[in-house]
Amino acid sequence: MEATRIDLATKVAGRVSSAPVSFGDRVTAGQLLVELDSPQLKAGLDTAEASLAVARSNRELTFSTRPETIAARRAELSKAEADVVLAQRTYDRLSGLLDRSVTSQQAVDQASNSLDAALRAREAAEANLHLAENGNSVEQKAVAEAQVRQAEASVAQTTADIAELTIRSPIDGQVTARMAEPGKLFSAGAPVISIVDVDRAWFTFNVREDLLDGLEIGRTLQVRVPALGNRLVEAKITAINALGSFANWRATKATGDFDLRTFELRAEPVAAERNLRPGMSALVEWSASHRLER
């Protein structure tokens, strides 16, 4: 007899805080099996959530400007324009005085430099107002968006890791091994508990190739189980391995001049039989009167 066995392992490191099931217990799909604890992961989630809050705030600042900031930039532009007007008048006046030799060339040059500086200041003020009214560049906005997505991914990953601290049964079955003990520390990937689907056990036979004649998928067999008082269990062949495996029947005069290989045959009980357990031996007979032991 064989059955599906699932060895459950933790994907993250943690210390066992509770293990409410024991060896031999019947469990149902979704039932809590083991609870782990990891203060490091919980602290990591706090950090990731804080980083996400910062990234979202930065994105908001990048995409929008407060009204008072726009008003301040407009005031700066108005002052810069007034400075240009004043610097232009000063330059024009000194240039006229220079023509009449009333002022020096140095004074005119200084006025020219002041006018150039005022013009550059006005250009900068215009650019600052444009930025305040229209927000940052497309590239800066893209960076802000990417930072938010990165922070969200970090929160999602840490949240998923914390969810892995809770281990639940994926099937209805029976606990066949429990390595998890309260207080025990497990590393990622370490098995903590094993579940076997005892309600869906099947028979597996290794059949010699010269005995395969008459055995086909869909045929029913009467299987005798010694552990159940030699009770006969009806089973249907559901699979025959397409490839032969080992050859433990060596060539003899009785079997011919070649080694005989074996083929794995799988048969499932037609009706549910709760008393069948993986590892039980079984005997099967078919019309050719050959009997095979497993």
From TrEMBL:
The keyword rRNA-binding does not apply. Gene3D superfamilies: 2.40.30.170, 2.40.50.100, Helix hairpin bin. Residues 108-168 form a coiled coil. The keyword Signal does not apply. Transmembrane segments: none annotated. Pfam families: HH_YBHG (PF25881). Keywords: Coiled coil, Plasmid. It comes from the Bacteria. Residues 39-162 form the YbhG-like alpha-helical hairpin domain. PANTHER family: 36 KDA ANTIGEN (PTHR30438:SF1), 36 KDA ANTIGEN-RELATED (PTHR30438). This is HlyD family efflux transporter periplasmic adaptor subunit. It comes from Rhizobium oryzihabitans.
